[in-house]
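User: I'm writing a tutorial on reading structure tokens. Could you give me a worked example: one chain, its sequence, then its tokens, then a sentence or two explaining what the tokens reveal?
Assistant: Sure. Here is the example chain.
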Amino acid sequence: MTKIVRSIVALVVVFAGTSAWAADAQTVSAAAWRGPFVPAPYALAATVIRLAEKGNVKAEARLGWMYATGRGVPQDYAKAAKWYYCAAIQGHGWAQFELGMLYNKGQGVPRDYVLSYMWLNLSASQAVGDDRDFKARMRDAVASKLTPAQVAEAQHMALTWYKVH
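And here are its predicted structure tokens:
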């Protein structure tokens, strides 16, 4: 083996052991793997898409992340927002947080600090410990961009959403 090939194989082995790859291995069947080290990103995406289209909330959130980061699919913030929304309305706290951040930045959706606050507030309300503190700080950072009336509106929207769901 040449030094270059050995280096590539070594990198593949290192990346195959990371938690991101390990998480992929746990959520995707063995059929989505090609070779002993690296999952085929498009096979992984196809599996996640199939599950998301069937309404699997974890797959919807994961597909949102895949579109937001361009992992296994072309980066597309509008599609990320769509899939985060599908998971968020089912109460998935991480998807609610990510959707709130997309509204804060105006990525894939129109920039809307009121909706950002609402989704971040819903996410923070179900988080615990340090995760709750982080999400509350992010929500409060968005609140600093709002008037008191807008904060009240966003809180009312979150409460109404919570009562309905």
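What the tokens reveal: Strands lie at 33-34, 38-39. Residues 75-164 form one domain.
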